[in-house]
Amino acid sequence: MHSPQVKLESSANLQENMLLEVNGLKTYFQMEKGKVAKAVDNVSFSINKGETVALVGESGSGKSITSLSIMRLIPKPPGEIVEGSIFLEGKELLTLPEDEMANVRGNDIGMIFQEPMTSLDPVFTIGNQIVESLMRHQKIKKSEAYEKAIELLKIVGFSRAEVIINEYPHQLSGGMRQRVMIAIAMSNNPKLLIADEPTTALDVTVQAQILNLMMDMKKKYGSSILLITHDMGVVAEVADRVLVMYAGQIVEEALVKDLFLKTKHPYTKALLKTIPNIEVELHRLDSIPGTVPPAHLFPKGCRFAERCTYAMAKCHEEDPSLIENSPDHKVRCHLYEREGGM
Amino acid sequence: MAYIIRRIILFVVTMATVSLITFSVFQVMPGDPIRIMLGTEADETQVETLKKQLGLDQPLHIQYMDWVKGLVTGDLGDSIRFSRPVTELLADRLPVTISLALITLIIVVIVAIPLGIFVAKRQNKLSDVVFSSVTQLGMAVPSFWLGMLLILYLGMNFSFFTISGYVPWTQSVVGALGALLLPALTIAIPQIAVKFRYVRNAILEQLRLDYVRTIRSKGITEKFVMYKHVLRNSMIPILTVFGLITAEVVAGTIIVEQVFSLPGIGQLLITSISYRDFPLVQGIVMYITFVVVFINFIVDILYSVLDPRIRLN
Ligand SMILES: Nc1ncnc2c1ncn2[C@@H]1O[C@H](COP(=O)(O)OP(=O)(O)OP(=O)(O)O)[C@@H](O)[C@H]1O
Ligand SMILES: [Mg+2]
Questions:
Q1: Does A182 lie in the same domain as A194?
Q2: Is A201 touching ligand 1 by the criterion CB < 6 Å?
Q3: ABC transmembrane type-1 domain: which residues (chain B) (predicted)?
Q4: Which of B135, B197, B214, B283 pairs with A24 at a CA distance of 20 to 30 A?
Q5: Domain total for chain A?
Q6: CB atoms within 10 A of CB A119
Q7: Number of cross-chain residue pairs from A and B with Cβ atoms under 8 Å apart
Q8: Domains defined along chain B, listed by start
Q9: Residue where a domain stops, chosen among A188, A209, A230
Q10: How far apart are alpha carbons B283 and A283 in whole angstroms?
């Protein structure tokens, strides 16, 4: 009766509630002169069913590459997932044959991208592009698929769905296109929705609409969300749990209230200071001095050390490991290695 | 619709401009056609009579208007060399040249596009080197030499090919193909060698764009990504290149008709120039420009068919 192999497959089997589990993911890019860009370097995290997990970090920290790795859409060459495992409900995605992985994309996992202006095919109608997604994963007739597409467009807020369906992407505004993207991503009721900075390119007024829409969709379909953003304000509003990423690594992981109230990592503290303050008219009060080093030039020791105000000698020498203070709160920083910390 | 009307207006304006330029060029060109017709011994009264007969005594703008009226009604005057209406001469030669150009174009399209896709899919260092040498070679080979090679290696060995002269379609389809295939290949091969790279580049360019990632994220398989989306989008830049090819093919027929002794427009042009047969040269020049401008017009219309951003603006 008992099969020990089942247990080895994934710890997701042990935890009923777990949807996605990423283990020791390494995605490297081969660059000229034999240099290697370690865009994602030993990243592990998990997402529970129905949970909204935010992945935050400055530009270039490896957020998009992490999400594209989950979809196995890393352009190869130059990129390659060199190590790790990704389980979706216990199914290992990284060893799946390409045709089976294609069945997962758009069906189990839907994705929205940062650039609504360029994310749709310019020569096909909105309807065609939604129907394409529906008919790829569901056995339905074309006429049925079109009806469903109209329904989806109504759900994402188009009152004139019957007209929009025959329009082309260039006839719609950025916010409208992003809503179309959401309709496409949600068309097959995915278990996981990955949204890579879905509102960054949009007007401030439209940003809130898109976020609300995503949260509505999540409630309606019970899906989990991996929300990539560098806006800590958005994180506070919608996330259950937060992953903070810096230079290809996760440096802090915490429930959202702990992240804001019991912030540990100096990088997270610095990030939190960058929340735009409404009272001073959305002026960025503070941005962290310096920039993320490019992925082929990560320094020795802690990758944040050169920008860190708390850096000690040790930080420039030794790579800190991810310390588990409590099951819900992990931090990669030498300051917390002994009990107590700062 | 507004787009198409604009294109039609542009077409008419371009043709009018070209006709004016063609007419002016022949006014300032050295060499008096009357003198050539009558020989240097002719006396003044003979010259005057002929001038009157040809309407060359009229003021220039009247001459131009007459000529344009002729163009529109299909009366391009009489050839000096052949003493026959230019339109008739053109009509005799046109089927040859048009067949040659069309066969060439078909060969280029059905080889260059699949080849471009093939190379784009197998993108690596080795194939890049191999295929760019092919391109270099294709650009360097003179067409008369390539034509002679084809005659030597294919024409001489297979009775299917006629290596000199023409067989009308109405007489024998196989015969016509046999006469036209080698000259068509002569023009097509260098075109393919150069233009398949444009196809490849257009496809690689598309593959880098964001929308391709979206399509893949929907689970669409690579076959559909390539043949439904990428190829369809690439057709827009590829169309530009094929518009150019058509003009180059028409130009190519001029030399190749000499090599293969095909009685086409090209051959007629060369004869007419050496005899300073002005009405005929003018007629041929107008024909060639008409073809080129007309093709550009068609290309513009096709753009609007392929690209909703043009159609709906
Ligand atoms: N094609 C590539 N070749 C080499 N390095 C790459 C490539 N793509 C990404 N990288 C490296 O991966 C790092 C992480 O990139 P990524 O796009 O994941 O950042 P990000 O966190 O999503 O940033 P942003 O907020 O700007 O979207 C980059 O700094 C870059 O050095
Ligand atoms: Mg990104």
A1: no
A2: no
A3: 94-303
A4: B214
A5: 2
A6: 25
A7: 77
A8: 95-263 (1.10.3720.10)
A9: A188
A10: 71
3-state SS, residue A195: strand
Q: Which stretch, B138-142, B148-152, B187-191, has highest mean pLDDT?
A: B187-191
A contacts of B219 (beta carbons < 8 Å)? 102-107, 133, 136-137
Which CATH number do you get for residue A335? 3.40.50.300
Give alpha helix (H) positions in chain B: 2-28, 33-38, 44-54, 60-73, 86-121, 125-140, 143-150, 173-207, 210-217, 222-224, 231-259, 265-274, 278-306, 308-311
Instruction: Of A19, A15, A13, give the one whose Cα is nearest residue A225.
Output: A19
The partner residue sitting opposite B232, judged by closest CB among A119, A123, A181, is A123
Residues A104 and A163 in one domain: no
Alpha helices in A83-187 (DSSP H): 98-104, 126-137, 142-155, 161-164, 174-186
B229·A121 Cβ contact <8 A: yes
pLDDT tens sequence across A93-119: 999 999 999 999 999 999 999 888 899
ipTM, two decimals, is 0.86
Tokens representing residue A301 in the block: 């020791």
How close A167 gets to chain B, by Cα (Å)? Answer: 9
DSSP class per residue in A212-267: HHHHHHHHHHT-EEEEEES-HHHHHHH-SEEEEEETTEEEEEEEHHHHHHS--SHH
Q: Which 8-state DSSP code applies to residue A288?
A: -
Token pair of A331 as six digits? 């931090």
A62 and A197 co-located in one domain: yes
Do A127 and A259 share a domain, yes or no? Answer: no
Which of A188, A209, A229 is the last residue in one of the domains?
A188
Tell me the backbone φ, ψ of residue A245, rounded to 5 degrees. Answer: -115, 140
Range of the domain at A179: 121-188
Residues A167 and A214 in one domain: no
Q: pTM of the entire structure?
A: 0.82
Nearest to A51 by CA among A299, A170, A225: A225
Indicate the average pLDDT of chain B: 85
Taking the C-alpha atoms of residue B21 and residue A246, their distance in angstroms, rounded to an integer, is 67
Residue A128 counted as domain residue: yes
Structural domain includes residue A8: no
Beta bridge partners of A27: A40, A81
